[in-house]
Amino acid sequence: MDILELPVTSEGSRYVLVIEDYFSKFVNLYALLDQTAHSVAQCLFEDYILLHGIPETVHSDQGRQFEAEIIQRLCTLLDIDKTRTAPYNPKSDGMVERFNRTLIDQLAKSLLSCGGEWDNYLKQVAFAYNTTVHASTGYTPYYLIHGREARVPVDVLVPKQAVPSDLPLSHADFVSAMRDRLEVAFANTRQNAAVAHEKQKLYHDTSTRHQPYLTGDLVWLHNPREDRKKLAPHWRGPFKVLAVLDSEGVTGHVYRIGDLLSDGAPSQVVHYDRLKPYTLGLIPVPSSGVRRCPTLDASSRLGDEVTEVMEAGSSGTVSRAGRAVRPPGWFKNFVSYY
């Protein structure tokens, strides 16, 4: 489950609530005027749950609308296991994030060829996606949900095939035949999904060098908020690894870390991709309680060396070309002393 923001339409629609089933890949799209927790909860219950039933698990990012009390209360009342991604790690919800890109592409093509506004084509794009064979499952999402293929507009143009003579004559026979078809389809879907998963994992691991951290290691933490600021520090730290968490039976991907520079800061749960080893050494804690970075000592020595060069440079040095090299007098105003 995810929220996608698009340009505001004349009807006031600005957001799309995307809900996709992980097994069948069946997607549901709902246009929203706002992304408040109340609007999301109302749409989730009235438009999705009342049509498809109560899901066992709902997975989303850590957006405020998904972590609000009303969503937590709804999941508690309906016995829904609410899970969430790690902060600033969209790959934890990669299936929906990948569909968002498909949705934007298809809406852009529809608007270019037919005009209008995006909320007029939302249901059509969802229907086209659900009636297309998915590469990971080998079936259309519509078939895995309804047990039959949808009748699409092309069926109107193509002559209808003859009705099979072995159709079930009673409701019980129909249910039994559909159950048999779905059992075969579900088994093939699981097998195809496992093969697709291994292929995607192979592509991902070719450019990944995973070296898990241990409890007590010092790490840098990437700060995505500063990515757009060219001169801002993109890494913060050092942080200490407090615990290695278990994510679906796999360890070494999610960690709980604590900030060494702030005693009162709460611990954070972050993904491995946002961390890198801290290589500057330990940070000493003076008796005054003020933490100093060891690089300041090196900077102090560097400042002393620059001062000595400036003081000894009054007589100047001789370069290879035989010219006297002296630092400018105004350079003294720009030397930092520690």
Automatic annotation (TrEMBL):
SUPFAM superfamilies cross-referenced by the UniProt entry: Ribonuclease H-like
InterPro entries (alphabetical): Integrase_cat-core, Retrovirus_Pol_polyprotein, RNaseH-like_sf, RNaseH_sf
Domain Integrase catalytic as annotated: residue spans: 1-149
Pfam families referenced in this protein's UniProt entry, alphabetically: rve
GO MF annotations, alphabetized: nucleic acid binding
UniProt GO BP: DNA integration
Superkingdom to which the source organism belongs: Eukaryota
Protein name: Integrase catalytic domain-containing protein
Organism: Nothobranchius furzeri (Turquoise killifish)
